[in-house]
TrEMBL record:
Reaction catalyzed: D-alanyl-D-alanine + UDP-N-acetyl-alpha-D-muramoyl-L-alanyl-gamma-D-glutamyl-meso-2,6-diaminopimelate + ATP = UDP-N-acetyl-alpha-D-muramoyl-L-alanyl-gamma-D-glutamyl-meso-2,6-diaminopimeloyl-D-alanyl-D-alanine + ADP + phosphate + H(+)
Stored HAMAP family: MurF
Membrane-spanning ranges: none
Organism, scientific name: Paracoccus maritimus
Protein's recorded name: UDP-N-acetylmuramoyl-tripeptide--D-alanyl-D-alanine ligase
Species lineage: Bacteria, Pseudomonadati, Pseudomonadota, Alphaproteobacteria, Rhodobacterales
Keyword Nucleotide-binding tagged: yes
Length: 461
């Protein structure tokens, strides 16, 4: 497959192409590069120019560079530009400009990646689908996704994230979506925004990139919903609210053996779908995504049927049976809203003792200690039997818990992981959740290792 010729890439970026090459993909990582990829020598922790020779030796069709590295032949297949990141962004814009299909952009404080993946699965069989890899949603992730997009794509789903003000609007203008979905607005990145209203305005900036007449899909029942509506109205968008009210409305979600059987009413049409999870917080995001897919022209009933094939990825709420316990691995990220949703999932599962293992929530600003302490007042805490915590922020929750629910606390997740064998017992239902930088995932790894050893010993015995 031809994605970029030397001539097309040079025109798109204004760069100078060396050699007559054709790239079938775009890569920024020599560890995963495929034969035929164009290697993009970005500067991050390391300078990508240090890996150009390696990329070419692994079969890269060419490399996008701002200088020719000393260990690369002068006549190597290259695209030489003044600035690599700017050139990647130009490639992304060109990739979007030549694509004639429909584009959906998605943002939100919680659930961007899982909801994007729902959309990709739901569109199965309805044409050529292109979606962001992993959580590629920042200043290089969005243009990389667009630069990788085949010209004959029918539906594209572009994930857009932020950590500071002013990031979303330029990325949305680059993606030029026909439909933009906001999953929710919650207390995340408060250090940079100061208040949730600021977060809402930044999330609402996604509507600035809509191709007219664009459609804005937004949560109906948030305190900041009026701000989101104002942003959509300012962009001249068609507005569809989703939730338990609105044009896209959840009618029911019935748990059944680890799944949820759901029914929704979307733009006047009833659709049934099944989610392969017991996490009820996924349901409303599924309704929002189905509304977005319908607005983009997809067959809603087919989307509902295909959605049953979606599975939550590891680290984002997937439930697994592990040597006598049920483990909910939600260790990828956390803020007060997503933690509350995770606790609600834990509380809603029938079985043995419910145990939560929680790591710090980060980037919450000056109120971070009180926000951790307030978790003790969450409605689901009453149904949780034991709570272990790790990190200096979670110490405030630990101290606020009733004695009967107060488990172990450790300064770091690594220290807590050393006690993995004593954290849980056979028959437990266990939620592990925290911000990625809290490294609470090491507790998940320790639990898997410990429980597997115990299971193997029992098998031998």
């Amino acid at each position: 497959m031809s994605l970029w010729t030397a001539e097309d890439a040079a025109i798109a970026t204004g760069g100078k192409a060396q050699g007559d090459w054709t790239a079938s993909g775009v890569s920024i990582d020599t560890r995963t590069i495929q034969t035929g990829d164009m290697f993009v020598a970005l500067k991050d922790v390391r300078d990508g120019h240090d890996f150009v020779a390696q990329a070419l030796s692994k079969g890269a069709a060419a490399a996008l560079v701002s200088r020719i590295p000393d260990d690369v032949p002068a006549d190597a297949p290259l695209l030489v530009v003044p600035d690599v990141l700017s050139a990647l962004q130009d490639l992304g814009r060109a990739g979007r400009a030549r694509m004639t299909g429909r584009v959906i952009a998605i943002t939100g404080s919680v659930g961007k990646t899982s909801t994007k993946d729902m959309g990709r699965v739901a569109l199965s069989g309805q044409g050529r689908i292109h979606a962001a890899e992993a959580s590629y949603n920042n200043h290089w992730g969005v243009p990389l996704t667009l630069a990788r997009m085949p010209e004959d794509t029918d539906f594209a789903i572009i994930e857009i994230g932020m950590s500071h003000p002013g990031e979303i609007a330029p990325l949305s203008r680059m993606a030029r979506p026909h439909v933009a979905l906001i999953t929710t607005v919650a207390a995340a990145h408060l250090e940079a925004f100061g208040a949730i209203e600021g977060i809402a305005r930044e999330k609402g900036a996604i509507f600035q990139g809509l191709e007219p007449p664009g459609t804005a899909i937004l949560p109906e029942d948030l305190p900041v919903t009026p701000i989101l509506r104002d942003c959509a109205d300012a962009a001249g968008a068609i507005v569809i609210g989703f939730g338990r009210d609105g044009m896209a409305r959840l009618l029911q979600a019935k748990p059944h053996e680890g799944t949820l059987s759901c029914r929704a009413r979307i733009a006047g049409e009833t659709v049934d779908f099944v989610l392969q999870t017991s996490g009820t917080h996924f349901v409303l995001n599924a309704v929002g995504m189905l509304a977005a897919l319908s607005a983009a022209g997809a067959d809603l009933r087919r989307c509902g049927k295909s959605l049953g094939d979606w599975l939550p990825p590891r680290g984002r709420g997937a439930v697994e049976e592990l040597a006598g316990i049920r483990l909910i691995d939600d260790a990828f990220n956390a803020n007060p809203a997503s933690l509350s949703a995770g606790l609600a999932t834990l509380a809603g599962l029938d079985g043995g003792r419910r145990v939560a293992i929680l790591g710090d929530m980060l980037e919450l600003g000056e109120d971070e200690m009180s926000l951790h302490r307030a978790v003790a007042d969450d409605a689901s805490i009453a149904s949780v039997d034991l709570i272990h915590t790790a990190g200096p922020r979670m110490r405030h929750l630990h101290d606020a818990l009733p004695d009967a629910k107060r488990g172990l606390w450790a300064e770091t997740a690594s220290q807590l992981a050393k006690d993995a064998a004593t954290l849980v017992a056979p028959g437990d239902i266990v939620l592990v959740k925290g911000s990625k930088s809290s490294k609470i995932s090491v507790v998940v790894d320790a639990l898997r290792k410990t429980l597997k050893q115990e299971d193997d010993e029992c098998s031998i015995g």
